[in-house]
Amino acid sequence: MDNSDYRLPGGGKSNNRVGHSTDLLAHVDFNDYPTPLHLSGVREMNKNLFGMLGQAETEDEAADVFYNYMNAIFGIEPEQWEKQKTKPGNETRPSQDNGAVRRFRSSYLRLLKGWGFETCGPEGAVLKGWVESRFGFAPLYHKETIETLHSAAWMDYTQEKMNSRFHNNAIHTQLDILYEFCQWSLERFAPKDQTHIVLYRGMNLPDGALITTSDGGLHVRLNSLVSFSADAQVASCFGDTVLTAKIPKCKILFFNDLLPVHPLQGESEYVVIGGDYRVEASVYI
């Protein structure tokens, strides 16, 4: 299986920050036999966070530490939103503070909320752009199949991933910390010998999405960032074919129980970094 498709369309090179080649990270063999991944410098630059996390005895305590840290560092709570003066003709509803309006700061929670509504929306483009810059995976699909750097699909994706609405508050840094917190939580609270989590994804498969291997097994080539569910019945609501895959813990950006309050509750959702995965396929009618 040629993994060069995960690089930039047209064969362009992409970098990553995890110390392995993009080809290796995308390969089915890596997903079968993963090694831990860490984004360069993130834990070192946030020693206070991981020091406090080290003192947490439960998942709920750790989640509170993370949530409060992110609110404090990135000013996500309402009382820390920046204020700007109302301009003539501005339709934004003014606050009670001398006619000023509050400018909402971009946050990882806002991106997750947008992802929950539409994975190919602007928030989804920003999340895929983060995966591209940190792991080297360019998206295979965003509203339509992306084939070349000169295609309209790539241009639309690029415009959306760079939208200034979502880049006013170090959003990639927020996602870096979210990923490292997720990895820390899985290392700390999941069984020590557990390298994978069995997850399910509902799909209406196009021709060629599943690749039959020489040993009769199935591989699937997933987009750079996708959603899975821990519940097969929930997954079946999103497509007539349900894929069962063993997802490496190091490929998980976010999961439903990571935080007590977030926009993706209710679907046992996992947000997973893509690649070529060995799967089983079941048809639900």
Overall mean confidence score, pLDDT? 85
Taken from the alpha-carbon principal axes, the silhouette is globular
Number of helices, where a helix is a run of at least 4 consecutive DSSP H or I residues: 10
Low-confidence stretches: 79-101
Number of DSSP E strands: 10
Distance between the termini: 31 Å
Structural class: alpha+beta
- Largest beta-sheet characterization: 6 strands, antiparallel
Task: Walk me through what this model shows.
- With 285 residues, this protein is α+β, with helices and mostly antiparallel strands.
- α5 runs antiparallel to α9 (171-189) and α7 crosses α8 (152-161).
- The protein has helices spanning 22-26, 28-32, 42-45, 47-53, 59-74, 108-117, 122-135, 152-161, 171-189, 232-235; strands at residues 82-84, 101-103, 141-142, 144-145, 196-203, 210-212, 218-229, 241-248, 252-255, 269-283.
- The strands form three sheets. Strands 5, 6, 7, 8, 9 and 10 form a six-stranded antiparallel sheet that branches. Strands 1-2 form a two-stranded antiparallel sheet.
- It has one domain (3-86, 99-283).
Short characterization:
With 285 residues, the protein is α+β, with helices and mostly antiparallel strands.
Write the layout of secondary structure elements.
Layout: H1 22-26, H2 28-32, H3 42-45, H4 47-53, H5 59-74, E1 82-84, E2 101-103, H6 108-117, H7 122-135, E3 141-142, E4 144-145, H8 152-161, H9 171-189, E5 196-203, E6 210-212, E7 218-229, H10 232-235, E8 241-248, E9 252-255, E10 269-283
Antiparallel strand pairs: 1-2, 3-4, 5-8, 6-7, 7-10, 8-10, 9-10
Helix pairs in contact: 5-9, 6-7, 7-8
